[in-house]
Amino acid sequence: MSNVAEVPSAGPLCLTGRIEVEVGGEIVADTDDVALCRCGHSANKPFCDGSHNRVGFDDPGVIQGGRLVPGREEVADGAPVRIVCAVNGPLLVRGPLAVVGSDGVVSEGTKGALCRCGLSSTKPFCDGSHKESDFEAD
Ligand code: FES
Fold it and tell me: Which residue CA neighbors atom 4 of ligand 1 most closely?
């Protein structure tokens, strides 16, 4: 799979491949390399601004739970993945992606939800914890 999201320890989601980032129905990035905030503290969400260092974001970067799943539609080779930013919620994966933990464990699929509030107990995937927090993001 050509679209990859690496999950470094205590760092952002580092995506490479054909990546589209959607906020409020608009594509705000169409790129081959982007770092998206997963600590919840970037002033430039959904993009990383280095705030994980300032706040001492502490996460090993391994897949602690959750996974991507296959979607119903067939996906063409080389298709882009769209990352849809849910308002006050996760990064929704729509398209082919391999999430690679810092220990090399991989979850592949075309649908899923990645945590961007920093509070999930199943990082890098969302477990709904953003709902009980005051996490706010477009
Ligand atoms: S976005 Fe963090 S738990 Fe949902």
Answer: 126
The reply to whether 75 falls in a domain is yes
Amino acid at 44: N
Q: How many domains does the chain have?
A: 1
Q: What is the pLDDT of residues 5-14, one digit of tens each?
A: 999 999 999 9
Per-residue pLDDT tens for 76-111?
A: 889 999 999 999 999 999 999 999 999 999 999 999
The parent domain of residue 88 ranges over 4-132
Give yes or no for residue 123 CB within 6 A of ligand 1. Answer: no
Q: Which atom of ligand 1 is nearest to the CA of 89?
A: 1
pLDDT at residue 52 tops 70: yes
Is there an atom of ligand 1 within 6 Å of 116 CB? yes
Q: What is the CATH number of the domain that holds 95?
A: 3.40.5.90
pLDDT at 73 over 70: yes
